[in-house]
Amino acid sequence: MLDYVDREKNPDLCEEFKAHSRACSDCFNRFKFEVSFRDFLKAKFKGEIVSEEFINKIKTQLKKLQKDISIGEKGW
Amino acid sequence: MLKLKKTQKKLSEFEQVALVHIDSVYNVALRMTKNTSDAEDLVQETYLKAFRFFNKFQAGTNCKAWLLKILTNLFNNKYRQRIKEPPQVSYDEVEEDFLYSLLLKETLEPNENPERILFSQIVEDDVKKVMDNLPEEFRMVVILSFIEDCSYKEIAEIMDTNIGTVKSRLHRGRVMLQKSLYEYAKKRGFVKE
């Protein structure tokens, strides 16, 4: 069941499970609960947005590293 | 001069394919380090290391997974020791449908949806505490699967383990989270004892 919740089964097996769950309210309700749990967690944690200031800081560091690489001090 | 142009082109390409994933990379870093300062340091180190090894990245493959693998290695080698891990959440003898069965059988009126009752009332801070208290090896798998939508195979590659271990950790992590959330819900009176 949890493989279905995690969207890991191939489409044919998903169809089989859907057909089964239409006839089995226990499986259907449990499936619905577990999907809600996934969605609930995702909604609580997905919202982190990195600030432009932090992105610019990384870009500056990358540019510095790119110059070091181009003069042969680091990498490549 | 030629090398300078080549590296400038590489940087531009890197920014296009890698920097677009910075919110996800930061999100995972924050959940793993549990504080913004370490998370920012970890993200910065991840991007610098990724750029240094960008010539090893295969164009067209999953860049987010590649970045998260670098992040995971850095976290394991440098940050892991610093993080104060909570006491282990008890897992033994908990059935995989523990929370669903409990809510269904013991705490709800007929015709009520267990997910609506529990999930609509638990506050964000409690959820964050519960996630932070999850042991690190389970927390990582849960975040990558639930929050970042990585497949079992991608998680196995990121964490350098096998799919069986990923499934087992995800399963245990899910039950531990549900058990802890239920405890919070009980404390706050959202569900009956």
Q: Could you explain how this protein is built, in words?
A:
- The complex is a heterodimer of chains A (76) and B (193).
- With 76 residues, chain A is mainly α.
- Chain A has helices spanning 2-5, 11-23, 25-45, 52-70.
- Chain A contains 4 helices and no strands.
- The N and C termini of chain A lie far apart (47 Å).
- The mean pLDDT of chain A is 82.
- In chain B, helix 2 (22-33) crosses helix 3.
- Chain B has 193 residues and is mainly α.
- Chain B has helices at residues 2-18, 22-33, 36-52, 63-79, 98-107, 114-119, 124-132, 136-147, 152-158, 163-187.
- The mean pLDDT of chain B is 84.
- The A-B interface holds A 2-3, 6-8, 29-30, 32-34, 36-38, 40-42, 44-46, 48-50, 54-55, 57-59, 61-63, 65-67, 69-72, 74-76 and B 3-4, 6-8, 10-11, 14-15, 19, 22-23, 26-27, 30-31, 40, 43-44, 47-48, 51-53, 55, 96-97, 99-100, 104, 114-115, 119, 124, 127-128, 131, 142-143, 145-147, 151-152, 167, 170-171, 174, 177-178.
Shape of chain B: elongated
The number of strands of chain A is 0
Largest sheet of chain A: none
Most strands sheet of chain B: none
Count every beta strand of chain B, where a strand is a DSSP E run of 2 or more residues: 0
**C-alpha Rg of chain B, in Å?**
20 Å
Distance separating the two termini of chain A: 47 Å
Order of helices and strands of chain B: HHHHHHHHHH
Question: How helical, in percent, are the residues of chain A?
Answer: over 70%
